[in-house]
Fold this protein.
Amino acid sequence: LRPAAFPLHSVAQTMLAQTNAIIIRNDLDSGELAYHVLGDSASAAYVWNTLSHAIKEFERVAIGQNATPVK
């Protein structure tokens, strides 16, 4: 999501890893881009696995209470 097209506090309903998801842009206090990803709990493990591989591929980091990087 490009910052110019998806400004701070924007919300979008979309498909993520072939599941329905809601994405909320909520940047960190440091100004680093950050997003909340909301989805169906039944698909959580699958979506997290897919998303964590993309995070690794694009050399980003996951943050949050239970963020676990892909090995």
User: Anything to note?
Assistant: The beta strands are 11-16, 19-25, 35-39.
